[in-house]
Design goal:
The complex is a heterodimer of chains A (116) and B (111). Chain A is mainly beta and 116 residues long. Chain A has strands at residues 4-7, 10-13, 19-25, 32-38, 42-51, 54-57, 64-70, 73-78, 87-97, 102-107, 111-115. In chain A, the strands form two sheets. In chain A, strands 2, 4, 5, 6, 9, 10 and 11 form a seven-stranded mixed sheet that branches. Chain A has a four-stranded antiparallel sheet with strand order 1-3-8-7, with no helix packed on it. The radius of gyration of chain A is 14 Å and the shape is globular. Chain A starts with a strand and ends with a strand. Chain B is built from no helices and eleven strands. With 111 residues, chain B is an all-beta fold. In chain B, a hairpin with a 2-residue loop joins strand 6 and strand 7. In chain B, the strands form two sheets. In chain B, strands 2, 4, 5, 9, 10 and 11 form a six-stranded mixed sheet that branches. Chain B has a five-stranded antiparallel sheet with strand order 1-3-8-7-6, with no helix packed on it. Chain B starts with a strand and ends with a strand. Classes of the chains: A mainly beta (116), B mainly beta (111). Chains A and B meet through strand 5, strand 9 and strand 10 of A and strand 5 of B.
Chain lengths: 116, 111
């Protein structure tokens, strides 16, 4: 258990509505990530953070923004949700192993988002 | 071409069988390699890291061939509880802290 929680766990919303997903970690890890998972595409990185107020884009960042005002919280916002953003969203943290030469990621339980 | 390619399966095998999954990756600069397991409607969980010399964890054996950019996972004496999707994962281009995931190989172990 990597001490990661996500909220909400399920959400149904309508097109054009803003949505914010929250990821919370209890172990002070520096790196946090947001992914989406869709059939046939696997997990794709949306945004990641390497510290408070330090974020960067991933492979599929269009239509998403993030914020990290505290080490423990990483928020993902869909400013105006679209049906193409219906997906399962996973948050992850990165843990250094083997003296920092390898980083392993651990995932939260996921949020199932449906945009109607 | 996808950065990480896996046979999606599904692989349906009887209990006790040996099954092997393969994965190829395109980024020759990748340094770290992993297999993750994902149960239906759950989050991915780390199964094992993959080392150049090959490594074993109980019934699971992982192999890496850097020259061919190929990773494998062998499961011996399959159990019903091994039924899951297995994700091949490598470090992404340009960053050791970003991972690229394959789409996964689905395994069902039948009684």
């Amino acid at each position: 258990d990597a001490g990661i929680t996500q909220s909400p766990r399920h959400k149904v919303t309508e097109t054009g509505t803003p949505v914010t997903l929250r990821c919370h970690q209890t172990e002070n890890h520096r790196y946090m990530y947001w992914y989406r998972q869709d059939p046939g595409h696997g997990l794709r990185l949306i945004h990641y953070s390497y510290g408070v107020k330090d974020t960067d884009k991933g492979e599929v960042s269009d239509g998403y923004s993030v914020s990290r005002s505290k080490t423990e919280d990483f928020l993902l916002t869909l400013e105006s949700a679209t049906s193409s953003q219906t997906s399962v969203y996973f948050c992850a943290i990165s843990v250094s192993q083997f003296g920092g030469t390898t980083d392993t990621q651990y995932f939260g339980p996921g949020t199932r988002l449906t945009v109607l | 071409r996808k950065e990480v390619e896996q046979d999606p399966g599904p692989f349906n095998v009887p209990e006790g069988a040996t099954v092997a999954f393969n994965c190829t990756y395109s980024n020759s600069a990748s340094q770290s390699f992993f297999w993750y397991r994902q149960d239906c409607r759950k989050e991915p969980k780390l199964l094992m890291s993959v080392y150049s010399s090959g490594n074993e964890d109980g019934r699971f054996t992982a192999q890496l061939n850097r020259a061919s950019q190929y990773i494998s996972l062998l499961i011996r004496d399959s159990k019903l509880s091994d039924s899951a999707t297995y994700l091949c994962v490598v470090t992404s281009t340009g960053s050791a802290r970003q991972l690229t995931f394959g789409s996964g190989t689905q395994l069902t172990v039948l009684p």
